[in-house]
Design goal:
With 156 residues, the chain is α/β, with parallel strands linked by helices. It has a single domain, classed as Cytidine Deaminase, domain 2, CATH 3.40.140.10. 44% of the residues lie in helices and 19% in strands. The chain has a 5-stranded mixed sheet with strand order 2-1-3-4-5, sandwiched between helices. It is globular and about 40 Å long.
Length: 156
């Protein structure tokens, strides 16, 4: 599977969250081409402001792999990780972060963000994680715009 395939899975997962009243964030963690975990934002459902898609995916991957370290794993996210999620990825030793929309894109759709880029977080943390941006950005932007309009499923 390709980066685009895994990103499509993250986007599909985000739609599942949107259908439950959550924000349009989805993530999946992959190791050696195998999906380890998928998650969507569940902050509202769980009444937990830390229940971002990336954090939820890291929690599930760590449980499944029985390890706090996700060395060699990649995370795919519908949006550039916020500073909290980037730090969680760095601490979990995720080797690669792949995202679609940018923090500024989410901010434009009304989702307030802390405007610190993954590039800056990578520099500050000295984690050396590989960061790949804009994978299926347009497709993810459609998700965010649909969410802003109150749509709860993808248009056909």
């Amino acid at each position: 599977m390709t980066d685009e395939d895994f990103m499509r899975l993250a986007i599909q997962t985000a739609w599942q969250g949107v259908a439950k009243g959550e924000m349009p964030f989805g993530a999946c963690i992959v190791s050696k081409g195998q999906v380890i975990s998928v998650a969507h934002n569940s902050a509202k459902t769980d009444m937990d402001t830390t229940a971002h898609a990336e954090v939820q995916a890291i929690r599930e991957a760590s449980r499944r792999l029985k390890s706090l370290e996700l060395t060699g794993c990649a995370i795919y996210s519908t949006c550039e990780p916020c500073p909290m999620c980037f730090t969680a990825c760095a601490w979990a030793k995720v080797g690669r972060i792949v995202y679609a929309c940018r923090i500024a894109d989410a901010d434009k759709t009304g989702i307030r963000q802390v405007p610190i880029s993954s590039a800056r977080m990578n520099q500050l943390s000295q984690s050396g994680v590989e960061v790949v941006r804009d994978v299926l950005r347009e497709e993810s932007l459609k998700l965010f715009e649909a969410w802003r309009r109150g749509e709860t499923r993808p248009s056909r």
